TrEMBL record:
This is Zinc metalloproteinase. GO terms for molecular function: metalloendopeptidase activity; zinc ion binding. InterPro entries: Astacin-like_dom (IPR034035), CUB_dom (IPR000859), EGF (IPR000742), MetalloPept_cat_dom_sf (IPR024079), Metallopeptidase_nem (IPR017050), Peptidase_M12A (IPR001506), Peptidase_Metallo (IPR006026), Sperma_CUB_dom_sf (IPR035914). It is found in: Secreted. Its main location: secreted. It comes from Heligmosomoides polygyrus. Its cofactor is Zn(2+). Residues 360-441 form the CUB domain. SUPFAM superfamilies: Metalloproteases ('zincins'), catalytic domain, Spermadhesin, CUB domain. Keywords: Disulfide bond, EGF-like domain, Glycoprotein, Hydrolase, Metal-binding, Metalloprotease, Protease, Secreted, Signal, Zinc. Residues 116-331 form the Peptidase M12A domain.
Length: 441
């Protein structure tokens, strides 16, 4: 389009001493750990990772640096004995991450390490579909939450699932009620588990955890609490773990709880594949700004401050979350503005939020209460006003050689978690497939 385009949306150490609960949780049936010694090795490596990360972030050693392996975490997706709070790693995966982190520290000190033999595809992808899954209702897991998460991934991607009513003897997924929300990364083999614990039943969290298991990319999106779990199962790490995160966010190490620095480990470029889909502040896989905070201070700050309230959403997988998966399987049309071929209809594009048309070249169709979605900026300030519970999208184009100027008013929203469900979203950067800056206060 000529001129500027603006899219607006309304809407080696001694093994640490651990509590009994840690072993109970990590030695469940179908766990990747065979016995207590294997759990001890894992937790010792996690402690080592925490030490290395402290050096990378420039944090001085403290007597309180030991990871607090308490039984009951403050948040169900921030378990201290899991990687990044909600990822259960195999011993091989942990070794790879330790190797990567040691290399980062080595390079940071101006040294160049000899090349190591390390595959860029650390986590196996699922290759046989549909993926069998078992909802272990005997544990008390929310059946409806799991079904909603599965339905969301099925509707938005080429991935298919088939429910089974007993634990699979082949590769598959088992959903159960554990302590917190967590999953493994990618396809590990056998019946691998996803925990949808208390406080983990939102759509975003379930899809989030599922995304970790599927590893179609080495970084997949998580879902609302349910969707998030599935994101890891599909193979995604958290968004703020990307190798290029320093161009988008700052990790405020001074505000991170003692013993939790390892939760902010950065992955190497060789361990991630994103099909050219960049960093996404609005990813359902992104930590919120207060994750693992010790005093309610921000632990993550966006370099573009307009996106500070965007990170950490658990409403659903973002457009870019879903796009990463689908680019691997269905990509034929010349879609515009970041769109991609719809995996359910290869004659049309699936467009970023706010855009529509066959090739994503216009505004999405609005409800009648919103009015027309395609607007042209005038020389005088115009107002866009919307009331009641409605989602409206507007594409505002400036004449050639001109730019769009906008002002954001004060809002009065009545619901809680304002920037999750009620907000004004402005997409003003060139890459309008990304979730935009959100305003809610």
């Amino acid at each position: 389009m000529a001129g500027m385009l603006l899219v607006a949306l309304f809407l080696a150490l001694c093994a640490p001493v651990h509590t009994r609960g840690v072993y109970t949780e990590l030695l469940r049936e179908s766990s990747p750990f065979a016995d207590v010694p294997s759990v001890d090795r894992y937790l010792t490596k996690l402690a080592r990772l925490n030490e290395i990360q402290a050096k990378i972030l420039g944090v001085r050693p403290s007597a309180r640096d030991e990871i607090p392996f308490e039984d009951t975490p403050a948040k169900p997706d921030q378990l201290p004995y899991l990687f990044e709070g909600d990822i259960l790693l195999t011993e091989g995966q942990m070794d790879s991450i330790l190797m990567n982190t040691e290399d980062q520290l080595w390079g940071q000190n101006g040294n160049k390490r000899p090349k190591r033999s390390m595959t860029s595809n650390l986590y196996a992808r699922w290759t046989v579909f549909p993926i069998p899954y078992f909802i272990n209702t005997a544990t008390g897991v929310s059946e409806s939450a799991v079904l909603a998460g599965v339905a969301r991934w099925t509707a938005d991607t080429c991935i298919t699932f088939k429910r089974q009513y007993s634990r699979t003897t082949t590769n598959g997924i088992e959903f159960f009620l554990g302590t917190g929300c967590y999953s493994m990364i990618g396809k590990v083999g056998g019946s691998q588990q996803i925990s949808i614990g208390n406080g983990c039943t939102s759509l975003g969290t379930v899809t989030h955890e599922m995304g970790k298991s599927y590893r179609f990319l080495s970084q997949v999106t998580s879902g609302l609490n349910r969707l998030a779990a599935s994101g890891h199962a599909l193979g995604f790490y958290h968004e703020q773990s990307r190798y290029d995160r320093d161009s988008y966010v700052t990790i405020v190490s001074a505000n991170i709880q003692n013993g939790y620095l390892s939760q902010f480990t950065k992955q190497s470029k060789s361990s991630m594949v994103d099909y050219g889909v960049g960093y996404d502040y609005g990813s359902v896989m992104h930590y919120d700004q207060f994750s693992f905070s010790q005093s309610s201070g921000q632990t993550i700050r966006t370099l573009d401050t307009n996106y500070q309230q965007t990170i950490g959403q658990r409403e659903a997988p973002s457009f870019m979350d879903v796009k990463r998966i689908n680019l691997a399987y269905c990509n034929a049309l010349p879609c515009l503005n970041g769109g991609y071929t719809d995996p359910k209809n290869c004659a049309a594009c699936r467009c970023p939020t706010g855009l529509g048309g066959t090739l994503c070249d216009r505004a999405a169709v609005n409800p009648s209460a919103c009015g027309l979605g395609d607007l042209v900026a005038a020389s005088t300030l115009q107002s866009i006003s919307v009331s009641n519970a409605v989602t409206c999208s507007f594409v505002i184009t400036a004449p050639a050689g001109r730019r769009v100027y906008y002002e954001v008013p004060k809002f009065i929203f009545s619901a809680s978690n304002l920037c999750s469900y009620n907000f004004l979203e402005i997409k003003y950067v060139a890459d309008i497939q990304r979730v935009g800056a959100r305003y809610c206060t």
